[in-house]
Design goal:
Elements lengths: L9 H10 L20 E5 L4 H12 L3 E5 L3 H14 L6 E5 L10 H12 L6 E4 L18 H21 L8 E5 L31 H22 L1 H7 L2 E5 L14 H10 L3 H13 L11 E3 L3 E3 L3 H6 L4 H13 L4
Parallel strand pairs: 1-2, 1-4, 2-3, 4-5, 5-6, 6-7
Antiparallel strand pairs: 7-8
Bound molecules: NADP nicotinamide-adenine-dinucleotide phosphate.
The site of NADP nicotinamide-adenine-dinucleotide phosphate (NAP) has 28 residues, from helix 2.
Protein name: NAD(P)-binding protein
InterPro entries: NAD(P)-bd_dom_sf (IPR036291), SDR_fam (IPR002347)
Family: Belongs to the short-chain dehydrogenases/reductases (SDR) family.
């Protein structure tokens, strides 16, 4: 058992929530990115929103991009859009489809597609971008787990399990993982953001579950802990290959994320939120910025490319072993799908 969670400042929570609406301008943008010819990146959820924009920029920089998507047709449409945006790129776009984190059985077959697509090339960057922010607390996965916990936290950890042997190799000087979190982690449960007894609310009727915002927040608190825990779990090789694993809150952006929200709220969001490209800059800061080194393992990147501390208890979780406890808890649940 880890120590009880330290308290956190409500004032800071409010400040960080506000910051997402009025962040500093990005300082690390595509003009500063290196040429990525010969590099390979995986972006999950790249058929739309931030992931699609990230894939476009990577391809523009001549990267070989593997887009992990649920639906083949959406993947093909996205691929065409990415190719058309930069007709003279020297990179490539390969689709690994069929990955639906609502059913953990689909993850291994998709990882096999990634392995085939990669061949013997180095794998440089992994961006765990796919995510679900449901309007209601009723969503449930094929495995009977609350939908956002499974899609946002369990699914990426399972995919990472299959990517580890492809990624953890001394074959390149660029090795990054970005676990896409959110400022919504600030709204997560009191004890390190997690409902420890039953984070997936398995067997709990929707009527007895907390509000959707707390469930989304929990899954995004998990992403912050996963970024650090993964680097600790693989410390020897991670140090050797100088890999950096960070989480990020991409910003408040106009994407499909709020697709099932009330149209009025979506309209208001349209005025307050930022263009999707800024979210891509935040994710790509995590993936490419030379300012991040192995000293930044588990850093929490905020819009549009700077490091802040997460909520105080979750920050404490990154050094007192709570992150590893969560990693192990999820690992136990997903291990039957290895
Ligand atoms: N937009 C924001 O303001 C904001 C703020 C903070 C954090 N984020 C985070 O940023 C990431 C990208 O969000 P976005 O705004 O670009 O959202 P989006 O436009 O809704 O895109 C989400 C992506 O995730 C995929 N996805 C959803 N459910 C999935 C599942 N069950 N299995 C596999 N993939 C699934 C979607 O695929 P389908 O199209 O097939 O559904 C889509 O490709 C998410 O992790 C989100 O939590 C976004």
């Amino acid at each position: 058992m880890t120590e009880p969670a330290p308290s956190y400042s409500r004032k800071r929570v409010l400040y960080e929530l506000y910051y997402g609406f009025r962040p500093n301008k990005p300082t690390y943008t595509p003009d500063e990115y290196p040429n990525l010819a010969g590099r390979t990146a995986i972006v999950t959820g790249a058929n739309t929103g931030i992931g699609l924009h990230v894939a476009k920029i990577l391809y523009e920089k001549n990267c070989d991009v593997i887009i992990v998507v649920r639906t083949a047709a959406k993947g093909e449409k996205a691929r065409e859009e990415i190719l058309a945006a930069t007709p003279d790129s020297k990179g490539s776009v390969i689709i690994a489809d069929g990955c639906d984190f609502l059913d953990l059985n689909t993850v291994k077959p998709t990882a096999d597609k990634v392995k085939t697509a990669l061949g013997d090339k180095p794998l440089n960057v992994i961006i765990h971008n796919a995510g679900l922010m449901a309007r209601t607390n009723t969503g449930i996965s094929k495995q009977g787990v609350e939908a956002m916990f499974q899609v946002n936290a369990m699914g990426p950890q399972l995919l990472q399990h299959f990517l580890n042997p492809l990624f953890l190799k001394k074959d390149s000087d660029l090795k990054r993982i970005v676990w896409v979190s959110s400022a919504s982690h600030l709204l997560a449960f009191r004890e390190y953001g997690i409902n420890w007894e039953n984070p997936g609310f398995e067997g709990v009727d929707a009527g007895q579950r907390p509000a959707a915002a707390a469930l989304y927040g929990q899954s995004k608190a998990a992403n912050i802990m996963q970024a650090k825990a993964w680097s600790t779990k693989n410390k020897t090789i991670v140090d050797e290959i100088e890999c950096v694993s960070v989480s990020c809150y991409p910003g408040n952006l106009n994407t499909d994320l709020a697709r099932d929200w009330n149209p009025l709220l979506r309209k208001i969001g349209g005025y307050l939120f930022w263009d999707v490209k800024y979210g891509a800059y935040t994710e790509l800061y995590g993936a490419l910025s030379p300012a991040l080194t192995t000293k930044n393992q588990g850093a929490y990147v905020v819009p549009f490319g700077e490091v802040h501390d997460p909520r105080e208890d979750i920050e404490a979780a990154l050094t007192n072993g709570t992150d590893l406890k969560l990693w192990d808890l999820i690992e136990e649940k997903i291990s039957k799908y290895f």
